[in-house]
Write a structure and sequence with these properties.
The structure is a homodimer. By secondary structure, chain A is an all-alpha fold. Chain A has one domain. Chain A is built from 18 helices and no strands. The two termini of chain A are about 45 Å apart. The mean pLDDT of chain A is about 90.
Amino acid sequence: MRISENGIFLLSIAVSLLSFGVALFFYQWVKKQQADNKRIAEVGGFIRKGSNIFLKREYAILARFAGVIAILIFLFLPEPIWSGDMKKNITMAVAYILGTALSALAGKVGIEVATIANMKAAEAAQKGIRPSFLVGFRGGAVMGMAVVGTSLLGVTVVYALTGDATAVLGFSFGASSLALFAKAGGGIFTKTADVSADLVGKVELGIPEDDPRNPAVIADNVGDNVGDVAGMGADLFDSNVAAMAAALVMAMNLGTTTADKSSNIIMVFCYAALGLLSSAIGVLSARMGKKGDPTKALNGSTYITTVIFAVLTAAATWLFGFEWRIWGATAIGLLVGVIIGIASDYFTNDNKKPVQFVAKASKSGPAFTVLSGVSYGLLSVLPSMAGIALSALLAYNICAPIGEGYAMFGISMAAMGMLSIVGMIISNDAYGPIVDNARGLAEMGGLGDKVLEITDELDSAGNTVKAVTKGFAIGAAGLTIIALLGAFMSEVNSAAGLKGLEKITGFDIMNPLVFFGLLVGAAIPAVFSAMLMLGVDKNAQRMVAEIHRQFNEILGLKEGKKGVVPEYEKCIDIATTGALKELIPAGLMSIIVTLLVGFIGGVHAIGGFLTGNIVSGLLLALFMSNSGGLWDNAKKFVEAGNEGGKGSDAHKAAVVGDTVGDPFKDTAGPSINTQVTVVSLVSSIMATLFLSFNLFRFFG
Amino acid sequence: MRISENGIFLLSIAVSLLSFGVALFFYQWVKKQQADNKRIAEVGGFIRKGSNIFLKREYAILARFAGVIAILIFLFLPEPIWSGDMKKNITMAVAYILGTALSALAGKVGIEVATIANMKAAEAAQKGIRPSFLVGFRGGAVMGMAVVGTSLLGVTVVYALTGDATAVLGFSFGASSLALFAKAGGGIFTKTADVSADLVGKVELGIPEDDPRNPAVIADNVGDNVGDVAGMGADLFDSNVAAMAAALVMAMNLGTTTADKSSNIIMVFCYAALGLLSSAIGVLSARMGKKGDPTKALNGSTYITTVIFAVLTAAATWLFGFEWRIWGATAIGLLVGVIIGIASDYFTNDNKKPVQFVAKASKSGPAFTVLSGVSYGLLSVLPSMAGIALSALLAYNICAPIGEGYAMFGISMAAMGMLSIVGMIISNDAYGPIVDNARGLAEMGGLGDKVLEITDELDSAGNTVKAVTKGFAIGAAGLTIIALLGAFMSEVNSAAGLKGLEKITGFDIMNPLVFFGLLVGAAIPAVFSAMLMLGVDKNAQRMVAEIHRQFNEILGLKEGKKGVVPEYEKCIDIATTGALKELIPAGLMSIIVTLLVGFIGGVHAIGGFLTGNIVSGLLLALFMSNSGGLWDNAKKFVEAGNEGGKGSDAHKAAVVGDTVGDPFKDTAGPSINTQVTVVSLVSSIMATLFLSFNLFRFFG
């Protein structure tokens, strides 16, 4: 059976609409859950208001930024307006704006539902763990379905209207550039608040987490939403779109006949739509078992989704006569994703040796907590990097026999395979901050110890699952950016073809321009993450000073005198202002260096530059995410009564480790993916310009 | 004027002998300095004995290891004994053993003089800062002259006898494999002792550094010798030999006539000999100015050496009619080395912003010390990596017009340029641990506060200069391993030529085997450094327990009762046993993974693998060395009375930072260079085997 391009577009749109339906159903379901605790409504209202204010101010800045970029795109891309076809420039600028707008919308939807679901989940916990879990999960699933539905819909519409994969690159660049800043801004906000609240509250004063006396406590909960919900959503929106864009760019250059090309494009959309469908089935079927283990419930539905996806795509391949080899590449991507997730789990799970070793090392003081965490974090990069390397190698070799160009297409399809279940991943990821918030609300609403125990358990499951999904996300991003490197070469060669220049056959490491790019490119993710962490560092110092001021100046606050409340909004304001100030420079730096390298060394230097970015980006992202998760769980392990338990010296040391790990895992680590993606997309979009204008043109 | 190969060999040997003369002169001079303090003689004797015992046990293990490797080389390299020319196998095995033996000898000489110079420098400090400086510096210079003289002599003899650059690779591999383990073993020993002594002494009990009551104090001083003298010497012996080996391998494949080739080989030896000569003049002229600033004296003689070298090589180039372009590449290497040194200085000097920022951040607790130090450490990689990238690009393009193959030869000569002043660098580097030891001896010998002030100043100058020389060393290693990548390709192609296989033209990143190697290779330095740091971590925990035991069980120790001495040798024994246990696995891991990648993916995978190693190795080495140096100086900055001074919370936090930084900068960071060099040499030596036997042979 054959399916036409139009047929597949309709299918994609239908599945997108279906996912919106699921999102809407869950949203209504969450909204109608019981809510009658006044204190929770009040605090929840603060959180909701704070999140929305931050988002509004952030988007106001980003809208101006996106406007400037859109004008530049219109003037210069894909070719300077005076030398090319103006229609193409308009198309790309519009696609870019659409990308930013849809990404922003997805973030907004996430905040909208998360700041309701948190209150409902807190109150549902009074009825038991199962109903509370369901509220948290379904709240997260609204985000999951909305993000993936929007991204599929956006890519489909842009491609169906233009028939041009380069326009999809423009759309993808829009999504990425928004994600870059949303992730950085949200990441700085959330960790500023988290670190400051912990440092003064837990370490100095010894008051519990989420204690309402702490002036930073609301800011901390706002941070969970703007960082882990809105920022994370923008990030995965971006990854998903980038993976599709890379696959489409390469599909455009495949095969000798239009039918071949069309068949590959159909396959990309078909697999993407089936991935979303599988995730929709997965989230609809998610329920906690009788034993009430939330980790099992989350991981269980993830695995179910992967199986459904594998079966559905196999059926589609058989039905529509797609290449089985490409299906194989996709399946490999999926499989390796699972393996990477399991490896991440090993390094961050408190049942395993690394966490327990770090907890034990904490007894000798914080220096040992940090050293052993750094060491295990560095060790943890091996299985994931080897996994990504192996899956790329296998996907390449499986697809190479189909014909020229299919090998790299195979890698991009492996990335699509890993990302196929992204709807499920986002649902799991957004579940985390919702139940984290619910825990805070239960504490501040005075729902009692039994409810706190339940929310603690839900929260801890969120942390564990996060490690797995993060491994997945980094792996998928790794494969995507490898595919984007292929897309870059495709773009260079199609531009070279148009200009009558010689096509390039690859990027030879022994070419000094490539090597030059490689070394400079490797430094960029390091500098980028350093700038973000310094942002958190500076910002948190300001906030710590403010918290100290409030505890000193507001009488009765420390003692918890009735009716005395801290000035929450001052802390929210510090976090907001600081995050917005620090959010632009790091992202801008990475874009500017890309332009410098491109205009100095041309496309060969950029090939090396992207590779350097990929290699050091993966290394640092895996290191930071895993060591951060490890420290977090080592602290929880000590708090559970091991190595001296709460209040012991080991605990104090473990808190230091956790504080170091916070910006590692929630600010810098996950932003690196986005940074590398943006750099890759900028390169692909600028390919024509780099080819025409560069200092070393004659060395290439 | 022309000079023959034999002429240049004689010149090299003469300069080597001259440097031995300088070393002997300094050694005698140091020995005849006054010494009459009994307590110092006693403690100094302990240190000397401890160092020698460790060295003996270490070398015993390494001799067995080297024996096994030599047998394997004899059986399999450069080709399996049953299929090649047995004479070549014997040559290589003998060259390998010679490399290990000379490297070990250089380390032994260093220990011999350093453990005398430390006592003499302590007593000389009673007469003032200038005499004490001279003792420390000349003690270090013995090591500097001995190491570089031995390496030049060794390479000259091996090459003159065999006329075969591959034999020099074997010699270099011997030096590297010894350096790998000596650096790792010494690094683990020294930081185990240092960290444990500080943690219990300074942090827990608040007793001063080098207090004789501290059971780990002698082990700490032994560590300075076995880690920073013997280990560092082996490391730079290795770098120097590797740079010459890479240049020689490439010179062998250059030019169309034998005369061309010969002229290039003569140039390599000539520049190396002139580098040693310049260093000899530099160390002979080193004296402290009237103002008595030791940092200026050390840096001043470094800069003098670079100028002398530039002038001498220019004269030789003019006299012997060498290519001026190659001289240009060498000069660029030298210049960029200086720039990298200055950049490292910025990030680690306490007059500059990074150190002061970290000191200020320490007021908010140790987590901020760690976070801001990590951030600045990550930032610091950019100037150095960009500098290395730029110098490689320039050297390549300057030399490319000479003819085919000269471009890569230019890079190797840039590396030689950076390493030309290695004799001076080692002298400066070995000065550090000698005056550090002198400080300890002055404290334990009760020489009074005025003497301590002098030794403190000398010690602090050693730390500052270390940052500059470390930047230099890493930069040179970076260029050397780029050149080794070229050497690897040369070896592959000469093997391919012999076997009638197609020559390779480079390593294309878009080749999935190259990419596979790249990702796996990038993970190796991370895993390697993690293993070393975990070694320190585990070992230090054992030693901390032992120190606690002694303070609890030995009555009167804590109170400093007269006549009560701790059991120093127990701590030395723990450090020794632990270091020897942890020293083999990390090095072996990196060699085994290289073999795996080579036998799976062949030469293309290895090309990528080496590149991945270089990129992530440079990134991590720079990050670790600089952040470690930064934390050390931030602590000293606080101790000098800033941000609350000694005993304040900021000080406690800064000590945590310093403790984290210790294994960063003295165990893992500097070992990474050696690890990458070893991997590069293994690859070059195994080139023929990887070409013939690999799983993916038909994918290449």
